[in-house]
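Reopening: FadR family transcriptional regulator still failing for me.
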Amino acid sequence: MRNREKAPLPTLSSHRLRKDDSRCRKEKTVSGTKPASKTYSKRSLHGLVAHDLGLRIVGGELPSDTLLPNEADLSALLKVSRTALREAIKVLAAKGLLVSKPKVGTRVRSRAEWNMLDPDILAWHFEAAPYEDFVRGLFEMRQIIEPSGAAMAAQRRSKTELAAIRAAYEAMERAPSGSDAVVETDLRFHQAILNASDNQFMGSLGSLIETALLGSFRLSSASRPDAHVTSLPGHKAVLDAIERRDPEAARSAMRELLRGAKADVLAVLKLPQKKEPAAFYN
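Support: Ran it again with your exact input. Result attached.
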């Protein structure tokens, strides 16, 4: 077994442990429900420790295979109780970020072992500045799911579901550029389409990847002040195709909408544009 160096960890900064820290505020999801895999409270001390360590792991400060200091040393470094640290490690282990073994210690697992659909892991990627493979992988996943969801919605949507999609689009039209309302209404639009697919798994995926969608929408809107306005025709094309029950037009319109969103995100992150896999257009 190769030797692993123990990672030096600076003390948690005081702003990370304040009870009025912004990360401790009760989270409100656009869908109105808390993600199912949320496994800790950001109001608790162990939750703040989990957030701090999780962000360091995802951000690369604690790379894969890093052996953490033992419990006594790490709790002293972070200036938290061993109980809080123990609970935080349990949270991160459940997410696939850490593994603890007797007489070996706690180490960081490889990225391949992480639960990439976990809302916290997704949020930490965006908070730590998303890397190129993450962004491209996220949009590949969206290209696999959302065009098919739009096509299914065109075939199966009810009048009520169509009204929900239209209401979300009209709310997007009214939202002031650069406001949180832009992101929230964009998310509502995409989730309403997945819900209208009349497939319980497709609908659940929308809630599961809500954090990823919010992150990508925020990056898209940050790319330029008029990103929200210029994306409206693409959203309208999807809505119109679903309204007239044209599945192939809905699929194509959603593909184009996602291509534009991806280009905006790559631009704001200063990443190169690359041709998308041909499989997305077959």
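The chain has two domains: 1-15+36-129, 131-281. If you still see a failure, please send the error message rather than a screenshot.
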